[in-house]
TrEMBL record:
InterPro entries: MCPsignal_dom (IPR004089). This is Methyl-accepting transducer domain-containing protein. SMART domains: MA. PANTHER family: LYSOZYME-LIKE PROTEIN-RELATED, METHYL-ACCEPTING CHEMOTAXIS PROTEIN MCPB. It comes from Mesobacillus selenatarsenatis.
Amino acid sequence: MEAIQNLRKQDTKKKNILMLSTYSVSLVATSAYTIIEKEPFYKTMVYVSELSFFILFFLIFQLWLKKESLFPYAAIAAIFIHHFLYIGMFGGNGAFLLVLLFLAVFSAIHFDIKIFVTGYSLGLVAIVMNTMLATENQDFLSSTFTAILLCYVLIGAVLFVLIRLNKAAFKSLETFLADSETEKVRKEQHSALLHGELLVVTESLGKINDQIQTHLSSQTEMKIAVNEISAGSQVQTEQINQISENAEMTKQRMDEMSDMSVLLSDNTLQAAKASESGSVKIAELQGDMKDLASSISELSQTFSMLTKKIEETNGFIVNIRNITEQTNLLALNASIEAARAGEAGKGFSVVANEIRKLAEMTKETAIQITENLTSVNETNSAALEKMTDSSEKLTESRTAVEEVSGFFAEVSSTLRELTNQFGQFELTVSDVKNQSGDVEASTRELAAIIEQATAGLEEMNATIETLNDDNQTIAAYVSQTAAAAEKIKTLGA
């Protein structure tokens, strides 16, 4: 719209200059004509004064007030006022009709309906005044008034059509300029939008590059963590192997205890036979009792050692559970990092789930081993209590033998009961042996599971390295894209 306003303003200024130059030339020519024809001097002064006023109006409206759109109205009004005064002072004549026709065309210079109608209407009034106040050729003017008026109307119609055509053409030009300006604004907006989008793309690529660098750093840390987990798995394997060896040793001790229980049972039978032989065998029986008490003491110590070994094994199981929980925690952290990585960490998330499953399996196995060891410990405690009872009864038997040899029958009964208890003890020892075998098998299975977990961690490490290489390649592509976007942004600016 500003371009159209400027175009109108410049067009008005140029047409004002055209009016000034055209009418000034005509006034100068008219003044020269009056001088050449030696007409009265006051007529020459009228034209000179009219020229002076015309130029003054131009300077006031065009240059001083900057109201160039008012100049045509003021100029036409001044011209016709001057001619009205001229007709009133000197009367009309035939030559003046040509001047009025010229002024009709002169009023159409701006091709503005309002200006033209103003000048044309004043010209029509001037024609009527010129005919009515004519001092020369009055008969001619009166007889040709209708024809002159018709000619004036036809000229007005032609000029009106020309003005309408010019206005339509100027309107088309304004529309073209408006469309051009709109297109220019649209292109500028499009360019600004493109530049803004390039800025967003550049910033987004920068953020993506930063995120990829963060992922690379995270994957490096994950690689270190997986290596640490792998090292921890190796330590777990060694500990499980040690637990397996301890279970093997426990089984061997159980074999020894079984042999010892058989021996004690035989000794008890011999003692029963000896008690039936009479008081003659008391001394021998007392010796056997001492041997039996010593054996029970050793057996009690053996059970105590077994209890300690079971407690140590429980400690190992606790360590296994702690390591399992740490492995589960590391798998959880790995899943979280994989979730942050998005699509790129999907494979790593699968590996992390497998690790978590292995950790849960290890945890369940450790719980089962703990339950088995707890059962063994309870059985061992029961056997130890029975050994204590047996020792007390042997002490009572020795006291009874020392006090009275007549209690041989009671001793024989006690020995029979002791024989039965040793039978039960043999069964208990057999159960402990079987449970020790189960512990050994479970620890071997646990060792195999941990070895599988270690292999899975190694595969995970290889996967992380592959992801790291892929992310580095993506980072290189993103950097190239960001550089290309920066070049496009520079060209757009």
